[in-house]
Amino acid sequence: MPHNDGVRVRLAAARDVVWLAQHDEHLSSDVLFNKVGAGEVFVAEVGTELAGLLRVDYLWSRVPFIAQIRVTEKYRQLGVGRALVAALCDDQRAKACGFVVSSTTGGETDPLAWHKAVGFVPCGEVTGIDGPGSVEVILRRDL
After folding, report:
1. What is the DSSP pairing of strand 99-105 with strand 49-59?
2. Alpha carbons 136 and 128: distance in angstroms, whole number
3. 18 vs 24, 25, 30, 68, 127, CA distance in Å?
4. What DSSP string runs through 26-82?
5. pTM higher than 0.70, yes or no?
6. Tens of pLDDT along 85-123?
7. Strand order in 99-105's β-sheet?
């Protein structure tokens, strides 16, 4: 799935799990392996090098939620994150899904601005999820 100059996005494969575990600090290799098998992880490549990942979870078993998006420092500001989101949107559109959701910690202006730049719109907040006083901004992108 080529989306941007030099960036190719594909579903992750079993051979990617070691790299994924090094770059997604939230899940173990075993869980990542299962998510790869379920088609819930995308990777971006620039040339022959892995440059980023996007892991999707499903809220209420049906709402696609970007649980993790990560671009390696070397490839930031080159459209890798945008290409990952585009691939997820293409995938979900093909499954007749009307939207995807994501979130970012309230007060983090750069991630919020990035989400808006790739088509997400804030649609709510969850307070206290990471402790007293914390705010998570929920964002939606219609497909």
Report:
1. unpaired
2. 8
3. 10, 12, 10, 16, 34
4. TS-HHHHHHHHHTT-EEEEEETTEEEEEEEEEEETTTEEEEEEEEE-GGGTTTTHHH
5. yes
6. 999 999 999 999 999 999 999 888 999 999 999 999 999
7. 2-4, 7-11, 41-46, 49-59, 63-71, 99-105, 135-142, 121-127
